[in-house]
Sequence to fold (137 residues):
Amino acid sequence: MFDRLEIKVSPPGPRFAAQVRFWVNGEDIVEEAVDEGGRGPYAAEVLPAGRPSPLRATGEARRLELGEPECAGGCCGFLTVVVQRFGEIVQWSDWEVPSPAHIPAPCPRPPELHFDAVQYDTEVARAEADRWWRVYS
Fold:
């Protein structure tokens, strides 16, 4: 059984531009791995205008930054994952998680995820085309 990806863009706030959150199987993967105050990457970086999103999966493995704790990634590290396509499967693996100093145990490492490539590609294309947040950026 495949995992299911949903990409959601949060509206900009007083401190941050619009940011992306990744929901996998109904759970916010950033909040689960980074903690409640963490943030996802800026929408303008992950869903750029005029060029393909770095979320697009290819046969070449690449590491993507998906989030950071409230204190900022430069302090405690980032939530990153390796994204790669294997035929009809998109795999997220080899997670790196931040280690905030105020939390005694490291953040939980998400499991390896496997997406149906058609569903994954459709969701990334939908998020790339939905530019509502650009009005507020």
About this structure: The mean pLDDT is 86. The chain has four helices and seven strands.
